[in-house]
Amino acid sequence: MSQKNVVILGSTGSIGINTLKVIDRYPERFRVIGLTAYNNIALLERQVRKFKPTHVAVGPRGLGRFRGQVNGVKVFDVDHDLEELVSLPEADIIIIGMRGGAALKPFLRAVRCGKRVAPANKEALVMAGHILMREARRHGATVIPIDSEQSAIFQCLQGQDRALLKKILLTASGGALRKVARSRFDRLTVKQILAHPRWKMGRKITVDSAFLMNKGFEVIEALRLFELDISQIEVVIHPEAIIHSMVAFCDGSVIAQLGITDMRLPIQYALSYPERLPTGLKDLNFFDLKQLNFDRPDLKKFPALALCMTAARKGGTLPSVLNAADEIAVEAFLEGRIPFTRIIELVERTLSRHRLVKDPTVEQILEADVWARQETLSGIQRKR
Fold first, then answer.
1. What pTM did the predictor assign?
2. What residue ranges of the chain have pLDDT lower than 50?
3. Distance between CA atoms of residues 16 and 115, nearest Å
4. Between 3.30.565.10, 3.30.2310.20, 1.10.1740.10, 3.40.250.10, what CATH number should domain 315-384 receive?
5. Alpha-carbon torsion, ordered 200, 201, 202, 206, to 10 deg
């Protein structure tokens, strides 16, 4: 395997940090040529010293600092130059670890340049997954998801005749509120919501996981990544998070991907595909597994999942509105401006007021995103 050049968008987040751990284990196979961060300048500086990329993108606070102190590194503005960074001719693999809708444009540019793109970002695929995958096919790009559930589906489908696929079973741990009564939701603190039982993730995605909005996003993501119909996706609550997802075929066979809960597994697979390399992590010990539990999601307790499925069925600009409204509402909750249950109320309100564009362009998707943010902010202010 020849050495691959890697660009990491969001290198100081959990995905970026774990990607660098994988690359550090296999320096002869992977070389970092681009790193990006927004606010965590101190960590980015340490990463630059260790991995010596040729290109760095930073937020406004870090631009002058990097341009004045790091010799031999081309410095980009993270707000404006990511499309240029991902289209570098020497870049082979683009890791999208940054969160939010801002990932859409660099993701689109990367697939149009025929790169291997490994997204951990749900938002871009939720907003415009049909366009991203269409452009990937058109330009010969490869999209290998890093999210553990989507990676599991990708792996289970390898070598299979897609015409024989019956459905996918998308697993969910159930989040921090699986055993919490719905009547208590309004009294829960930010700290309690952020206490995810299985994963250590960013604050926004942990909140989304708590009320299954994140799993709803993954439903839309899977629809786009694997060209499915909504009827072919079933969400299964699996608290142990050992089975990362399953694929069922027409003959009744079900293929599952299992593993310990460590993001380095799907990250390394996306980097080394189609090869598999030793991770240095502990193996899954079946003798330590006392039981594996499965349950149906409670859509009355967690209406966000049903809301996402409705947005998936209707399509068009609705998923973009869903994503943007959720971003604004979750941010308001994390800042203590609204109670937890107000998040879903705001998202529902914004969706109900949106005029759907059925077959949108990228520009119309981005316009819907801006509208939804403004509309959700308006809803927050009205309530206050």
1. 0.94
2. none
3. 18
4. 1.10.1740.10
5. -100
